[in-house]
Amino acid sequence: MSKVFPRLGRRGALRGAAVGVVALGLLLWWLLPLGEKPPSGTIVFSTGTPRGVYQEYGERLRTELGRDMPGLKVKLLNSAGSQENVQRVATGQADFTIAAADAVATYELRHGSGAGRLRGVARLYDDYVHLIVPRDSDVRSVADLRHKRVAIGLPNSGVRLIADRVLRAAGVDPRKDITAVGDGIDIGPARLQQGKIDAFFWSGGLPTKGLVTLAKKGAFRFVPIDDSVLADLHAEGEGARYYRAANIPESAYPNVQQGTQVPTIAVSNLLMTRADMDPRLTEWVTRTVIKSRDGIGAHVHSAQLVDLRTAIYTDPLPLQEGARRYYRSMKP
Fold this sequence. Notes:
Number of helices: 13
Shape: globular
Number of strands: 10
Radius of gyration: 23 Å
Structural class: alpha/beta
Strand content: 15-25%
Distance between the termini: 45 Å
């Protein structure tokens, strides 16, 4: 008998088996709450525009949900962005979505249909406002956009909401002082390259896929949005209190920024649903969102910022009951 691998006694074997059972149980607890059969059925997830972060995150989250809940079919629905997403969930056209906190608050304050049914699932990551111009542009501040052709995002998008506010805060009337164009991240970069617009706004996670290719060519630069604009935004009220000062880090678009940060404003994104959504399904969705952070984050950099400690802060929305159950189950 080998001295390296001695014979296990009956007691040792039983002890080893018990440890294995406990380990397996803990694994099942993490992957399959309480050993339950996974929820099934069909849900609609409203995402965003092609080449935007919402769309890419939604596609990868659908894959993760399929692994945890093989019987659940997730239909993805493109949208203009945050404002349309909030309205879709509130009115029952979609079951889950991502939206920026300012758009959620604005919908509530304007008493949008079904606003009282909206509930939070998780705080995800932050959107950063990008104001983009050609490298040789004479635009150095938001105020310099006067008399320019400016893409301010699709109608009913979160970009449109925040671009209008930023322009007004800088003393620029988006209806009179600029030629407003309704381009989004899907076509805005190409139209900037072609000289069909002078600038465009984008609000999204870092880095945004629709800008990465253009950034490699170094064909544009960012216009800073300074603290004075933010102060005027906060004075506006409504959903503007959710904006905060931030910087686009030098690592986001290295070829463009060349080692410098860009002052701007940021707003948090929320994964949301309705109060009447099945709590058990919502609990499973919440679990998948948290545990798939690293897997999704390997492809969608913004997703790396999803964190159990901050996910529960879904202001201005209260947590949906299923999400609340999950977070309570994770307390030590």
